[in-house]
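Researcher: Hi, I'm a grad student and pretty new to this. My advisor asked me to get structures for two proteins we've been looking at. I'm not sure of the right format, so I'll just paste the first sequence and hope you can take it from there.
Model: That works fine. Here's the first sequence with its structure tokens right after it:
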Amino acid sequence: MSLLSKLNDDMKTAMKAKEKETLQVIRMLKASLQNEQIKVGRDLTEDEELTVLSREMKQRRDSLTEFEKAGREDLAEKVKGEITIVEQYLPAQLTDEEIRQIVADAIEKTGATSPKEFGKVMGLVMPQVKGKADGNQVNAVVKELLTEK
């Protein structure tokens, strides 16, 4: 079942259950996927769908950070709810330990020895963790492990 089909089914369920927030988030995800589909001019691959979902998740996490900085707990709570809904459509997230292992392997493969080689390591790590880990979390682990070298 494609992601769009799953979103359509979940949208119907949310409508019947009168879950306005869930319905709103599903509609946004569906619109983003359809816009991307129009942009590329064909059906999206699973990888492309994952990219769109990751982008949506990143936007919400960034918004959450900004709302918390501004002390807007009302908006932060709303975004937390949206994040929970978007997470349902993403693959299982990697644990901190799994991320550390992937980063350590990438550092070993690239032979990186200093923080100056950050880009080289990130270039190898990000395709492996796409949709399975937050980029900011991966970024922090790479910096930490490269600084230890």
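Researcher: Oh nice, that was easy. Here's the second one.
Model: And its structure:
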Amino acid sequence: MNLKEILSPDCTRVSVAESSKKRVLEYISQLLAPKLAGVSKSDIFDSLLQRERLGSTGIGLGIAIPHGRLENAGQPVAALLTLAEPIDFDAIDNQPVDLVFALLVPKDNPEIHLKTLSAVAERLNNKDCCRSLRHASSDAELHELMTQDPALCS
């Protein structure tokens, strides 16, 4: 999965100042709604929240990958945030989160959902890559780091 296809520069943000998991999910919903015709901010928020109720998407090491499937989504879309201050995300290691990659996919395409989640998790499993993402000083730099060749993310 080529992340450039789903993660646009205008959905990539550094130093987002939100204070809770709920606020981060609301911020993501607002960021992604214009990318999905016929899908509202509340549809996105509800999808992300519903997934969080099944279990936290905080995967550990300060990383969360909130995701959801939407009935009316025509294509997958993503957002990438670094947070100004780490927040509690109920992560599996009980550590606060400061790096968030959100993914929304069409409900009728579970295969792309799993493939994309796998590609993102693989990228975020690279400690050097995560360090570079956390130190990005601009939205453009953050986007470039996440979407470039994985071997270059260091």
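Researcher: Is there anything I should tell my advisor about the second?
Model: You could mention this: The mean pLDDT is 92.
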